[in-house]
Amino acid sequence: MASVSPSAASTQPVLPSGPAVFKTIPYAFILPEILCGTWVWILVAATSVSLPLLQGWVMYVSLTSCLISLLLLLSYLLGFHRNSENWKVLDSLYHGTTAILYMSAAVLQANATINSEFGSNAPLNYQLNSAASFFAFLTTFLYILHAFSIYYQ
Question: Which keywords describe this protein according to UniProt (predicted)?
């Protein structure tokens, strides 16, 4: 019968549960990801959408990512992971994929910002689109940090 030595058992990573999620990198990035992503879709929704295909993708990515990240945060807070190593893989794959999708959305939002510079109601739409572009790139950066910092735990 094989036994596990105490030192081998203690090297297994411990995934945070409850309030410890907010104190542990990379899991502390989840709440800022949700907040910045929420700002993206609020700001895009506040503009008069001149390019529905471009900004529709931005809205889809930001809203879907926000909801899935919220579910992931709740699962960490409630301890659904039960310290399984599979959750680290799931978390890394999700955040890596979302970073790529958010990068595409941020670039499309930047394009929509450039196109809104001279449209109807230009100053307000341009400012809202500029802010949405800023938060889209910031959210992309947060997702990238989260995805890569899992490997350096």
Answer: Membrane, Transmembrane, Transmembrane helix
